[in-house]
Each structure stands twice: as structure tokens, then as C-alpha cells.
Give the backbone structure.
Amino acid sequence: MKRFIKTILIFFAAIAIADIAFGALCRYFSKHARGGDTHNQYVTTMIQQAPVIIMGSSRAARHYNPAILADTLGREVWNCGLDGNGLLFQYGRLRLLLERYTPQTIIYDVIPAFDIREEDNLKAIKWLNRWADHAVLDSLIDDVDPAERIKLLSSFYRYNTSFLHMAKDNVGSPQIFDHGFLPFYDRMDYDGKGPDDKPSVWQPLKREYFEKFINLCREKNIHLIVVYSPWYKARSNRSLEPVTTLCREKGVPVIDHYADPDWVTAREMFADPSHLNDRGADAFSSQIASEIKKVETSTYK
């Protein structure tokens, strides 16, 4: 019996040591990646200190060229957008950024799917797993799933979906982002469909955290500007009304180009119906830069 217990203890000790070693390897990969998402997310979250940042999903990541915005705004701009992620992830990211520095302006690009409507919230914050030891994320993780913080004690769990991607970004020649920006270069050679035009209903947790995001910006004297960037063939912004209403109540400025007639039929500017290509991103960045500057001047004095 004693031998059996000893064997079990040795087995679990080996698992614990392997878990610790795996976590150390993944942290090394995160810090030393040559490029790709691994390098971009580490620099974006842990190193850059740009006074103006872009936040939101892939539409944020692909629609805003930091170099063009910086030229008009006269300040460094960093694109913190991330494909497939929205409000909950970006709230956690903002909490992590505020441990190091306070940006002056946040430009938040809203999309109904990730910022308003129902989705898998646990999946939505998976990119935060690698920084789960930062206490500023505790309340967010608890609100999404109280059991998650226990699971995240394991490095195997924390990095299980990202290890291969991180390893790949440490070898070869992965893509290099320019101040967080990596545009789409495709040209939409088909007549795509427009977005779902039905009104959106708040997922309660997203409503709560959108208000927390606004309040946090106000507490830290950060200029928050919400933007609805163009969507091919969009007919109205009805799907964005919950955010529009909340921003009106909170006094947050909104710049709306979601169904802008100058954009919604410009197929040559899109990579697909929901994303601008590099040409569209440059043109939109040139337009939005002057509008942002005007909003900052008139709203935040």
C-alpha cells in the first residue's frame, strides 16, 4: 500500500514539474517570438506605450493604419485590435495596459457580434489566459466563469490552445505587424451580402462591462471615442443602437460610418464584406484621423 501511495505521489509530482516547465517554455516563447500574433500581442500588451490606441475586433485591427493616424494627430498610435475578440477581451487588455501606463485616447471600433450580442464569453477572453496571474483580471475572469481561475493554475490548460502557434512564431519568418497593424491585401471580386440589419439585444455581461470600460476611461482621464467603421452594403446602424444609446447617456462621442453611402458600395475598398483591404484602410484612416482630431478638440478640452 505504501509503495502504491508513493508511486501516486511521484506521478503527481512529475505532472506538476512538467506543468511548471511547460509554463516556463511558453512564457519564453511569448517574450522571444520573432513575429506573428505571439510577438504582436506581447508587445501590444506588455511593451508599447502609445498615447493613442485602437481597440476592438478584427475590424479595428484591419481598418486603422497607425502611421496615417499618427501623421494627423501628431502622436504615436498603436493598433490593439485583435481578430475574433471584442469588449470583454479589450476590457481585460485595458486593465493590463493601465498597470504600465495610461493612454491619452482610445478609439474603440464596435461590432455587434463581439461587443453587444450573446456569444461564448469564455472563448472571448482566451487570449488573456497567458496573463491570468495578473490580479487586475481576477474579477473579469470570475464574472465570465468562477471555475476558470482554478483551471488557469495549470499551464497545460492556460496554453493548450496557443502552444503550437507560439512555437511557430519563434521559428522561420512569421508576419511582422506595423504598430499592431496588419491589413488585408485581398480585393473583393464578388458581390457580397450586407450585414444583419436586425436590432441587437445586450448580453447582460457585455452591457455591464461596456459601462465599466467607459467609467474606467473617465476615471483615468482617457479620451474615449467610439467608431462604427464601414461595412459593405450596410443599410442602417440599427444593430448598433444599444451602444449608441449607452454612449449618449454617458456623453461618449460616436463617429458613425457603418452605413455611410460613400463607403458601402465601394467594393474595391473591401477584402470581404466586413473588412476593408489595405487601400480601404488607408483611405478610411485618412478620413477618420481628421474627424478624431476634431472630436478631441471640441469634446475634450
Q: What stands out?
A: The chain has a mean pLDDT of 93.
